[in-house]
Write a structure and sequence with these properties.
about 280 residues; 10 helices; about 20% strand; globular
């Protein structure tokens, strides 16, 4: 057994892929969350909850993947995701967990425009204060139709498809490459550092949608449209219904205002091949 790894959000798409890979590599994986029927032993937890010290003892690594997309206002997001992450990091350190890895996002950077990116940046600040490593994945994809790419794949099946920001650059991350990076960083832990997890060559949003359409044997008519009307329409629906409808308005902003200068130097030094979108 290589060590004991505690993973928050292990029942979600990204967390489950990381958990599966680490388990296959010989780690003892324990889930931290509300899913009692998962593959791994689970410690009951919800974001912001208190954990008993004995729950966190004897773990070598904490990988924090959990994030609640339900809250829409900054106050709600800060309480549910940012403050809860700082609390978890503090508890982990007090219980002797030396290695903490935060699964952040490429939406996190200095001048990010999306609320999600701002939240992830705030969580990164807390993580680094606790000596953690932060991983910033691009848009995560894989053999399954989950996450943001899963939603886009469903949209690619429409006969007529409005394309927002068709020339926007999208950085993509194969889910297993992200899991491999986590494994490498556990063994070569460099505190208070940031790693980008994505293929260094971005793909245009229109090309990404064409690839998804082709994978589903669809040939939609692509119509370029400005992103702002789509963003404000979704935002209006969120205000009315108090939840996201089909696609989050903040995701639109995040896709259209991505980090223009991601630094892949640290990741490249680990000799990890980041696969091209659709190349599996």
């Amino acid at each position: 057994m290589k060590g004991k790894v505690l993973i928050s959000g292990a029942s979600g798409y990204v967390g489950s892929e990381i958990a599966k890979y680490l388990h296959e590599q010989g780690y003892e994986v324990v889930s931290l969350g509300r899913n009692k029927r998962g593959t791994y032993r689970n410690i009951e937890y919800s974001l912001g909850a208190n954990l008993a010290s004995q729950d966190l003892e004897f773990f070598d690594v904490l990988i924090h993947c959990a994030y609640d997309f339900g809250p829409l206002t900054w106050g709600e997001i800060k309480t549910k995701n940012v403050d809860s992450a700082e609390k978890l990091f503090s508890q982990a350190k007090l219980c002797g967990i030396e290695k903490i890895i935060l699964i952040s996002s490429m939406s996190s950077f200095k001048d990010t425009q999306s609320t999600y990116g701002k939240a992830k940046k705030a969580i990164e600040n807390h993580a680094i204060n606790h000596g953690a490593i932060c991983i910033r994945p691009g848009v995560v994809w894989g053999r399954s139709s989950k996450g943001l790419v899963g939603t886009l794949k469903k949209m690619a099946g429409f006969p007529i498809l409005p394309i927002i920001g068709h020339q926007a650059d999208i950085y993509t991350c194969f889910d297993q490459d992200l899991a491999i990076l986590c494994s490498k960083l556990i063994n070569a832990f460099n505190p208070e550092s940031i790693y980008y997890a994505a293929n260094p060559a971005p793909i245009k949003f229109s090309a990404l949608m064409k690839t998804l359409a082709k994978a589903g044997n669809n040939r939609p008519m692509l119509i370029p449209v400005p992103w702002q009307p789509i963003y404000y329409s979704l935002k209006f629906l969120e205000i009315i219904f108090r939840k996201s409808i089909v696609f989050r308005s903040d995701s639109v902003k995040g896709l259209m205002a991505a980090n223009p200068n991601p630094n892949f130097t640290s990741t490249n030094e680990l000799n990890l091949k980041q696969r091209t979108f659709g190349d599996i």
